Amino acid sequence: MRDVLDEVYPWYSAGEVFGLATVVSTFRSAPRLPGAAMAVSACGTVVGSVSGGCVEGAVYEEAEAARTSGRPVLRTYGVSDDDAFAVGLTCGGTIQVFVEPVSRRTFPELPDVARSLSAGEPVAVATVVAGPQDGPGALGRRLVVWPDRACGSLGSAALDRAVGLDVGGLLEHGTTGLRHYDTVGRCLDGEETAELGELTVFVRSFVQPPRLLVFGAIDFAAAVAELGSFLGYRVTVCDARAVFATASRFPHADEVVVRWPHEYLAEEVSQGRIDGRTVVAVLTHDHKFDVPLLATALRLPHLAYVGALGSRRTHRERLARLREAGLDERELARLKAPAGLDLGARTPHETAVSIAAEIIAARWGGTGRPLTRTDGPIHTAPAPEPAVAPAAPVAGTEPQWAKPPSRLAGGLRR
Fold first, then answer.
1. What is the pTM of this model?
2. In whole angstroms, how far apart are CA 283 and each of 50, 214, 259, 286, 342?
3. Is the pLDDT of residue 191 over 70?
4. Per the database record, which ranges form the XdhC- CoxI domain (predicted)?
5. According to CATH, where is 3.40.50.720 located in the chain?
6. What is the pLDDT of residue 378?
7. How far apart, in Å, are the Cα atoms of 282 and each of 147, 236, 285, 313?
8. One CATH from 3.40.605.10, 3.40.50.720, 3.40.50.300, 1.10.8.60 for 211-373
């Protein structure tokens, strides 16, 4: 929804009914991840994509049908057969697409979701994509969950409480995916057999973009910031030297900070603004900046990537200084240095591509090898987003809607 919201919201505001198709699950070499969306307006305008072109025509027809009939549907698209006119994915994967009519009547919570997305407030939308036609857990019912509240309904208070608690945990970790329940809210994930009344809920979590912290206000940092912004990161450039750390030199950064790098990182950690998706790129290759900064970063248990630029000689000296600072071999093993994949990069932008490639490989578990020298699926199954372990809950702080009655407390499977 996020990728098409700007285009579809005027349709919604005008009172139009449009068809919305959302990828809810993938298998093997699927071209788009869960959450990818395509919308079709009343006049036939198309925005977004669910497959990069493979099955867009078929999904377009389903979206048109859902828009006119008012009935949602879950469709599965797999590999094309030998028939040249068959509809399927040429890449060899499988996707499930939920197609639904969207309007003010079917999705009254959309304005609240849009406001949260605009403000960077975490929010999750839980939609029943497989279930009964009516009653609790009916197909297309929706629950919207924030960290402190919820709106909408899946059809019963018990189901709302149980799914709301589950979705709240998924939202905390920025997780998107399918969950399975019975109609009283008992989670069926992990059950060997499906029970009568089972329903499937697609949870789409919207959280703030992951952060890319670039330390060192040099020309290479400008290139890394530009590419990081292109990849969807919220980019911060930090340097202690005010003459170099200026917004005009880093137009693609969301913010430019003049601070000693290790002090800035420590403060961001203390304020809870660093999580398991955060990427740290140290480009200064100056020991007075690098050593205290890397000592701070490498001691953090949850960072997606910590890389440092510099020659192999610089890196050897850096390692010796970090050992003197008390870091052990396990902590040092987390450091990617010299940063980047071996692309033969020379220019700042080529180096930025090299570093970005290593960051992507670390995120998705890629090998960094040429695809011509690998076997198996090109797109591996997405790994769960790492996250900082949640703090222990404080008694009395749970939102009221999330407090189940005592008779249900023992029956919820988490």
1. 0.66
2. 37, 7, 15, 9, 17
3. no
4. 11-78, 117-182
5. 211-373
6. 64
7. 33, 12, 7, 16
8. 3.40.50.720
